[in-house]
């Protein structure tokens, strides 16, 4: 299995023709971040050969390219989810494309349910480590080749350097931030309270249905990774109200401004 289709490389070269240093992948309800980080080129995912289509409400499906706060950047607005029925390698395709564009740093954002008591709705979590409970990997079937290995070392999946930098930007901007472990499940149904108790026992501080595939691919490609979870709800059994996608989207939207200014602050530091 080749990492990137020939037609995709040709398209990127023809339509973009410049390299980026950083890539941002936006999670559920977080697409409006693109309005706060202006770029100069928009490419609908559907125009990119080999790119999976995204179908979930609230996930636009556009690649934005430009210089943000001094840093050449690719912004992926609209995430590809495993629960939509895509293969794992397709779910991680934005990372593969970001790598092909020259990105060395990937910032992955998501909506997540808070399990740790410190992670109430509206909180931010810097991801220190992850637990893959999705039952698959984007590296399945990958042939080892120059610059990529299916046997990726995941012992330092999330960059300590970027985490420390992000922590100081959050604090500078007056935002509290927690550091913790993210578990990813397949979804699309939310967890049961018993599953959330299991996740807590396994050492998870928050739970999501994304991110982990992209981070595995990024590490296989030796990219430096920062992960930020926006806590959009307390996980199942920890809040009174039933969980809904609409609630997750609404809560995510409320965090857009803060998230965008933290990302901008990070870009300034990294530029
Ligand atoms: N569980 C899984 N994924 C999520 C949640 C959750 O509670 N909230 C946002 N994404």
Please tag this protein with its features:
about 25% strand, Rossmann fold, 9 strands, binds hypoxanthine, about 270 residues
Describe the structure.
The protein is of the alpha/beta class and 271 residues long. The chain has a single domain, classed as Rossmann fold (3-Layer(aba) Sandwich). It is 31% helix and 24% strand. The chain is built from 9 helices and 9 strands. The protein has helices at residues 6-15, 33-36, 88-91, 93-100, 160-172, 193-202, 212-220, 245-254, 256-270, and strands at 22-26, 41-44, 62-68, 71-77, 105-114, 124-133, 178-185, 206-208, 224-234. Helix 4 (93-100) runs parallel beside helix 7 and helix 5 (160-172) packs across helix 9. The longest helix is centred in the C-terminal third of the chain and has 15 residues, at 256-270. The protein binds hypoxanthine. Residues 111-113, 190-191, 207-209, 232-233, 235, 243, 248 line the site of hypoxanthine.
